[in-house]
Amino acid sequence: MTIHRTQKYQDGVGLTDYDSTHDYPVGGLDFIRVYPNLDSSFWISGITDEIFARIDGKSFKKDCTLPREDLCYLHVLHVDLNGEVQEGEMIVNYHIAEDVLEIFRQLYAAGYPIERIRLVDEYDADDELSMEDNNSSSFNFRFISYTTRVSKHGLGLAVDINTLYNPYTKVVDGVRIVEPVTGEPYLDREADFPCKIDHGDLCYRLFIEHGFEWSGDWEDRKDYDAAISRCEATKAERDQAAADIRQRGISRREFERFIDELEKLPDAVSEFDEALWGSLVEYVTVSKDRTMVFTMIGEMETSA
């Protein structure tokens, strides 16, 4: 089976026309996940050696306490402030990778303006420079400002969107701190200006729907760029997840029985219908050992 994407890995192994004859170049997660029903520019991978070389000593600092294997690389599309389509890349914790990818897909589909989505390493992992450039990013190992605690960004569990127009602010020893300093004109949240995130904003709504919280609602400090932190699941959500897992097991067994019966029929399937297959498959997980797991719409699974 051929998987169509655009990015290339090291040693000339491309993600266009990728198939299981190639060694899988993974330096973190041992799979790549492809969503055939989404634009092929939206995808997730582990932190390959090539990607790690870009972040080592920068966002992934020498004293980083987070294992490389806990991070994922996202490739997305976004609409910039001029209405033009741009490629974006972000590194996040694997726990939130699929949610964040889906959020960016929905933002792109809606034409939501995001000026830049670049790795903070392009700014030598300098948060101030990245935010002044209105860059949207996630992972950068660091401590919470004016504390000794590792931040959610340091864990890859927070996402900043349009940072210049949605600055961080806190009063420390009677002095107001604003990050970036050039974001001070945008502290007035009653004013009308582009890229402002508030409770009516699509970006806010999508992150909340995916179980995040907005740091613009914090009482002791405000981070209007959405530095969105993962919320803990409630008991009801955990119970629902357990029920969903059980249902997926039932559905998978039913699907496997259907395939078994189909294979018994002579000439039941004479040719491969790519369009039909794409309408059935939600995503494909390609593992390090060259196996593929096809997750169908409705979350049934089969492997190859």
Layout of strands and helices, then pairs:
Elements: E1 31-34, E2 43-45, H1 49-55, E3 71-79, E4 85-93, H2 97-109, E5 116-117, H3 127-132, E6 135-136, E7 168-172, E8 175-179, H4 202-209, E9 212-213, E10 222-223, E11 229-230, H5 235-264, H6 274-280, E12 281-287, E13 292-296, E14 301-303
Helix pairs in contact: 2-4
Morphology call: elongated
Strand order of the biggest β-sheet: 4-3-2-1-12-13-14
Number of domains in the coordinates? 2
Task: Sketch the topology as an H/E string, one letter per element.
Answer: EEHEEHEHEEEHEEEHHEEE
Total DSSP E strands: 14
Number of helices: 6
**How far is the N terminus from the C terminus?**
10 Å
Low-pLDDT segments, ≥5 res? 1-29, 220-238
Structural class, judged by helices and strands?
Answer: alpha+beta
